[in-house]
Amino acid sequence: MLPSQTYVNISFFQPPAFLMIGIPGLEAIHGWISIPFSSMYTVALTGNSLILLAVRRTPSLHQPMYYFLSMLALTDMGLTLSTLPTTLAVLWFDHRLIGFNACLVQMFFLHSFSVVESSVLLAMSFDRFVAISNPLRYTAVLTNNVIIRIGIVIVARATVSLFPVPFLLKRLNFCPGKILLSHSFCFHADVMKRACADITVNIFYGLYVVLSTVGVDSLLIVMSYTLILHTVMGIASPRERFRALNTCVSHILAVLVFYIPVIGVSMIHRFGKHLPHVVHALAAYVYLVIPPVLNPIIYSIKSKPIREAMLKVLRRKG
Length: 318
Hints:
This protein is mainly α. It has 13 helices and 2 strands, in the order αβααβαααααααααα. The protein has a two-stranded antiparallel sheet. The radius of gyration is 22 Å and the shape is globular.
């Protein structure tokens, strides 16, 4: 009997649960693979928690630049916690089932935190532009009220952009035989491909969200640094030019750590259909796990005030 004939009497179907996988082809060593994953999750949560505590407990860090860094750290913790439960459940216990609604909730938060991270990086580039182009009015422009409003707009933008996505998926008729996901978490592109229905609306809305958030943010960040570079080149002293650019290094590295995996995942999804499933899985893990791990390391190495404040927090706890 043909597959199409098998489902002819089913008018509408939504699976009670999806089946997740860890890293395809490496199931036999998931126990060993869980060790580096557990370590990375620990580093991400510990490092970002230390940044939040350091900024909160150090009065000298109560400045716009470090408030935005706190937003980045909080976002990285949210992104980490979005994937941690299901990823470690698959790797540690081979618990691969996730309920349909739970999958949609995880997907919403996972993609929302990604959009928030992109927006925070944009806000940080604006912060660097104001600090370099108009240092005397830096704190007057970026007051606490302005920073709070920026934070509210960032969260509202991500929520409004991603809110329709779960409902667009819930309207779809899914195939009873297609419940195996390609990752240990719920990715929008992955979930919608399990449907036995026209997903054109989902594809175009997903593309719209990506272009209107991450796409626009990346262009504005490039524009900000073009203006910053123009301002820096107008500074007479080479030493002052170097000092001005040096304040941007940490942020530039954070931007690269976030956007390079984003571009990589997008390219693999669009043009890498012939690649092994393990490549798709690893690209997604790099995109979601690596930035929260590296950001605290970057800022603790490149920013002396942050490094000293984090060490003070550790000594106080010790």
